[in-house]
Amino acid sequence: MPVGRSFLVSVIYVGDAYFPSRPSEAHSVSKNRSNTSHVLDVLNRFPNPSDRTHVIHILRYMFPRQFNLHNVFTSTVDRKETIQPLKDYTLREHEIALQGGKGSFIPKRLKGKTFDLVQRMMRLHKRCSYHALIEYYCPVWVLFLFSYLPFARVAC
User: Fold this and answer.
1) Angle at CA of residue 152, ends 32 and 27, nearest 5°
2) Of 5, 38, 51, 93, which is most buried with the most CB atoms under 10 A?
3) 135 lies in a domain?
4) In this structure, are residues 131 and 101 in contact, taking their beta carbons and an 8 Å threshold?
5) Are 69 and 83 in contact (CB under 8 A)?
6) In terms of residue numbers, what domain contains 81?
């Protein structure tokens, strides 16, 4: 890169594909839900932080390049699969299965602190009450007798 010139780098944000959805509310809501957000979220599909294969599977989603999976940095997009500028990475179970499924191989740079941080993230995700956070930080206000009163959310 020449010195003194500025280069524009385009960063494409693909919606909320990288942000986890709320944990499955099996204890508070009926298990029969019409939406599929709980299926798409890898943290809800592999919830056990003490299971090594669950942690490795989540590492594959977070660091696909380390596991030789399709990634946004080095791979090209097949225009037969999508018309979007980037491939959708929310479900990559088929790609992981083609590569060898749930093996126990971990690249050297992901061992140690990274592995421990992912385990901690899984534990915190499981304990976090996302519904309570939404109620606290984004309350629904209802106009009642010319004054605003907080109103609890029924479902988010």
Assistant:
1) 35
2) 38
3) yes
4) no
5) no
6) 37-151
